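Here is the promised in-class demo. Please do not try to memorize the tokens; focus on the logic of going from shape to residues.
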């Protein structure tokens, strides 16, 4: 769950609790938690709804044979404990929570004197009172998990500053590894954090009060009152004012008893509340006008703000925590209460989990191209680095793979979620890669490092839009920059792979591919000149993640007795007159999750085929012209599953079928004319449709 969504849910939860909608939940019990603990436990319940709470430590009903819970307390019991809690709300509705745990005696063998002392301390004081400004050192060899943190924090020193005003109960777990064993002993205690209070008076006495910012109530009948330049008036009345501007409230004695002074109070504008991050684990909250003071106001059962009036309130949390909260603050100006104001804030020192690196290969050694994706929570930024490939003609074995891992030599860069990191072979040699990744959340916390290693051994060619100083040979390090060179390489071998990056400008000419091949794009974009044609003869070619674009031309792609597959591709063509984007003869075309767009002035068609087979899966076809056709087929079969068809312009021709057959399933059609009017076919042609959605554009 993203943090922004979590903040909203947290706020709604607090709001609902204010109106007693939610009863006591298991999550409201901060301590004890289910498990086996090697110290006595404390009972700490976050009673959000001010319910009557009772508990028992056995099978008995808490309401009949239990204890009333009114504040955190020690459970002085060792061994298996069945904690039975019963809460009764104001309407008499009862809710029960049962927690099974075991409290064993502390294990202090093989511990240093310092470690032994700490373990014994939290056994007798499972609620440890900590005042901000103190230094609490948890033994270095202990793993410390504050507030249900999933991974131990790096810093075992608790040292909140004297300025911290956030008071609360924080559940903490400590794990101690047993000497000579893989098992651990877990200890659980609650940190009761307190701040320093202020001696500053919360209020001063004035003959009037402010009710909810906007209403001035004149309460003392011994005075006359005036607001700004209004008429003087007596007590018992109220005046509503606009707090976006300043006002002056004056008062004078009603009876002349020697005191003729006219007193006044400047009512300042209502301030904004500022939340300022001071460090990774602390924020400051203060009014935007320096004349104001704030106090914590009403606090919840287990958290609050140190008492007093403050220019600024600093809130701090421990390493490994995250706090999302909405707090209602009271604001004062010159000792006079002005009103309340809710402030949303969050503090986060919780390191994110390591990112997950997912590979298309299930093995450490593969003879195919490898796609890497990296995932984490939606609000975290992923940084990754791919090491330079280690090349060898003989290849690696698994032991070499494990021993080759080193820190990345390349700089980390931001990963765009959902994109593929592609690992490929180099120069017809085995190439060993290591991929490293870590996460950083919005608060600046970084995760531990994830890594993945793989050996890729396949035959590939490379094409790049950036020219290099080295002699080009089509290898990973020295890719071709001329598309003609890349086509010649593919025509010299069967099942060749062409890996393309960057912007590829293709000059005029016919580029004919005669062998089976695969063309992979990595943020690549082909731009063909006006008289450049891409032709396929007796070949089976697949395109992946490629953008093909051609402008000011009547034709673009020609296929003769070939099979072409476009997967996650974009094909775009424009013409000032007529445009046949794809011309297929005795061929098969497969479009998967791709987009095909035609733009011309008079007539355009995306696919013009004869004696061919066209398959489309979750793809988008757009034709924009006076006469806008999408498929013009003769003696051909058309199969469309999913995706969208857009026929724009004056005359709509979604399908033009001559002795052909068309099938459409789960397709969205966008066309101003009716669906039937956009189908042109002879008597020898048929088409079937199922779940076709039509709408005008």
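The designed amino acids, position by position:
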């Amino acid at each position: 769950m993203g943090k922004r969504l979590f903040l909203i849910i947290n706020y709604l939860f607090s709001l609902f609790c204010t109106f007693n909608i939610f009863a006591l939940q298991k999550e409201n019990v901060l301590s004890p938690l289910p498990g086996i603990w090697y110290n006595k436990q404390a009972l700490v319940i976050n009673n959000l709804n001010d319910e009557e709470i009772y508990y028992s430590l056995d099978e008995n009903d808490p309401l009949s044979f239990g204890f009333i819970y009114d504040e955190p307390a020690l459970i002085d019991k060792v061994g298996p404990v069945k904690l039975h809690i019963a809460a009764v709300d104001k309407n008499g509705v009862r809710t029960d929570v049962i927690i099974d745990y075991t409290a064993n005696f502390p294990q202090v063998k093989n511990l240093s004197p310092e470690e032994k002392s700490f373990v014994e301390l939290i056994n007798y004081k499972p609620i440890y009172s900590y005042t901000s400004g103190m230094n609490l050192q948890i033994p270095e060899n202990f793993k410390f998990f504050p507030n249900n943190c999933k991974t131990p924090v790096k810093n075992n020193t608790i040292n909140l500053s004297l300025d911290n005003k956030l008071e609360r109960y924080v559940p903490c777990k400590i794990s101690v590894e047993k000497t000579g064993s893989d098992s651990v002993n877990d200890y659980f205690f609650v940190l009761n954090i307190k701040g320093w209070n202020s001696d500053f008076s919360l209020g001063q006495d004035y003959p009037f009060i402010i009710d909810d910012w906007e209403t001035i109530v004149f309460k003392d009948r011994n005075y006359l009152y005036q607001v700004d330049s209004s008429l003087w008036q007596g007590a018992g009345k109220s005046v509503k004012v606009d707090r976006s501007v300043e006002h002056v409230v004056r008062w004078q004695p009603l009876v002349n008893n020697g005191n003729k002074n006219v007193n006044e109070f400047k009512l300042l504008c209502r301030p904004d509340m500022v939340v300022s991050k001071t460090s990774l684990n602390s924020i400051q909250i203060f009014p935007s006008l320096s004349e104001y003071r704030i106090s914590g106001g009403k606090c919840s059962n287990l958290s609050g703000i140190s008492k007093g009036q403050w220019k600024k309130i600093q809130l701090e949390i421990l390493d490994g925590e995250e706090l999302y909260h909405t707090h209602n603050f009271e604001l004062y100006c010159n000792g006079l209460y002005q009103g309340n104001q809710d402030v949303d804030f969050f503090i986060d020192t919780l390191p994110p989990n390591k990112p997950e690196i997912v590979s298309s290969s299930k093995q450490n050694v593969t003879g195919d191209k490898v796609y890497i994706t990296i995932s984490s929570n939606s609000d975290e930024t992923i940084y990754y680095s791919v090491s330079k490939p280690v090349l060898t003609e003989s290849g690696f074995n698994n032991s070499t793979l494990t021993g080759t891992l080193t820190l990345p030599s390349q700089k980390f860069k931001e990963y765009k979620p959902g994109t593929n990191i592609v690992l490929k072979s180099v120069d017809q040699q085995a190439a060993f890669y290591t991929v490293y990744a870590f996460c950083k959340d919005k608060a600046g916390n970084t995760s531990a490092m994830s890594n993945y290693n793989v050996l890729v051994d396949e035959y590939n060619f490379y094409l790049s839009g950036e020219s290099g100083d080295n002699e080009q040979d089509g290898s990973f390090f020295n890719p071709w920059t001329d598309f003609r060179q890349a086509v010649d390489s593919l025509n010299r071998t069967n099942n060749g792979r062409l890996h393309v990056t960057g912007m590829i400008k293709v000059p005029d000419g016919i580029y004919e591919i005669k062998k089976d091949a695969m063309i992979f794009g990595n943020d690549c974009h082909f731009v063909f000149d006006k008289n450049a044609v891409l032709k396929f003869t007796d070949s089976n070619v697949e395109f992946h993640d490629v953008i093909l674009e051609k402008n000011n031309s009547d034709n673009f792609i020609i296929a003769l007795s070939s099979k072409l597959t476009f997967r996650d591709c974009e094909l775009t063509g424009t013409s000032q007159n007529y445009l046949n984007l794809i011309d297929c003869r005795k061929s098969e075309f497969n479009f998967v999750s791709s987009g095909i767009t035609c733009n011309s002035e008079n007539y355009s068609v995306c696919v013009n085929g004869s004696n061919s087979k066209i398959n489309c899966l979750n793809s988008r076809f757009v034709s924009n012209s006076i006469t806008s056709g999408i498929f013009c087929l003769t003696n051909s079969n058309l199969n469309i599953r999913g995706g969208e068809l857009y026929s724009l312009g004056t005359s709509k021709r979604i399908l033009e079928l001559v002795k052909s057959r068309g099938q459409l399933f789960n397709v969205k059609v966008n066309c101003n004319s009716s669906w039937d009017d956009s189908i042109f076919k002879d008597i020898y042609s048929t088409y079937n449709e199922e779940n076709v959605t039509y709408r005008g554009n």
